[in-house]
Amino acid sequence: MASPRSEQSADLLWSLTGVSFGYRDTPVLRDVSLELRSGCCTGILGPNGSGKTTLLDLLGGLRTPQSGSIEFQGRPLTGWPKKQLARQLALVPQDFMVRFGFSVRDVVEMGLHPHLHRFATPSLADQALIDEVLAATGVTPLADRPITNLSGGEKQRVAVARALAQRPTVLLLDEATSNLDIHHSLEILHLIRDRFTRGEMEVVAVMHDLNLAAWFCDRLIFLKEGRVVCQGPTEAVLTPENIGLVYGVEAEVRANPFTNSRQVSFRLPVQAGV
Prior knowledge:
Elements: E1 12-23, E2 26-37, E3 41-45, H1 52-59, E4 67-72, E5 75-76, H2 82-86, E6 89-92, H3 104-109, H4 124-136, H5 152-165, E7 170-174, H6 182-197, E8 202-206, H7 210-216, E9 219-224, E10 227-233, H8 234-237, H9 240-247, E11 250-256, E12 261-267
Parallel strand pairs: 3-8, 3-9, 6-7, 7-8
Antiparallel strand pairs: 1-2, 1-4, 4-5, 9-10, 11-12
């Protein structure tokens, strides 16, 4: 995978200090302190239930910490007006649900709302943007179909198109390729990475697949049981020791010239005497 855009351009996006969050009596994140900077694609990884999606929701302002503080671009996240924040951040959720039969084009046009005045209609330039993101995500042939009639993978590509139409400063991805086949996963990640490389947006992605993360991300944050285990450049933190600590498996990490990234192999620990 390509290198980060520039180490010199790494400006602070988020600052989290002592952030904790839970649901009723179940703590999910515990005393998390982080700085996320621009100039790199950042991946958030960890086992099921480690707090990855909750952390992404907190970064996006969808949830508020029960303790601690979050700043975005030097301002308390809770102090951002919702519409102004929506011009900065777009989220592609893991499961994209629309319960009404809007057309695909209508759903993608919803991404324009943070940039439109009340009761305004999309301009010709807005319509051209919609055409462009429909084509880029491969859903132009589906533009007139009801969103409720699409497969899970098709809906996920529509979710990406809507987020791109939002023209965000930062794109948040919550396992955005989990419903996609290998070909479409690579297409979408290539598309997003290309826009990041051109300086159009920053990217923070929750991912499960270690090998996709190794190929796509410049920096990784590993969570376990709601705490940050390690963070740093992908080459530095994607090690057998860290993978074993986080996931409880034995791992081997090698350079893969075919993908120009690191390749992870893993297995359950071999029991002594078995």
